[in-house]
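Write out this protein's structure.
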Amino acid sequence: MLELHFHPLASWCWKVLIALYENDTVFEPKNVDLMDPAQREALERLWPFSKFPVLRDLGRERVVAESSIVIEYLTAYYPGPVELIPSDPELAREARLRDRIYDTYVHDPMNRIVANKLRPEEHRDAYGSDRLKAELQKTYDILERQFVARPWALGERFSIADCAAAPALFYADKVSPIGTARPELSAYLERLRERPSFARVLREAEPCFKYFPGG
């Protein structure tokens, strides 16, 4: 009943894949190659911005886009044993806040660094890329203080915030390394990598890693 339109290398797609795998949610993966005009056009018919991930719910006749909104939708209509958005309103607010922190202060600058790397060399912005890397380093320092004596972003429970953190930190560490001076954040990233849901995402994406341009 569910289709996920995605690409296995795309970090925003990883966020939703982790959520799906956490709860063993049954879905049909639809790998989209945006370089193929026909596939891009098909995605655009679902979501005019031609961005993935896009979830299509055939049973409820709904198309849901944007990673956080997709996880909200799954939590509401396809819940599982892992409550990714807590029912407690205070915890839910905290989960959403941390989700936004990872998306805004880690995921977004990381993606802009990668996008700059993909430009023709004569059009790259070295100064802008260096500033974004400096922003990531500042964010790492803030996050480092949040993981003293807590395994996950909300403490003992895995949530949407961890779904956001996993792809964001994995790729950000490649373009602007977390480094050994931040042991708590480094250990958190390692726990994320070992989480079965994220480990599966990484295994499935591995054949595409050669296309990642690095920092």
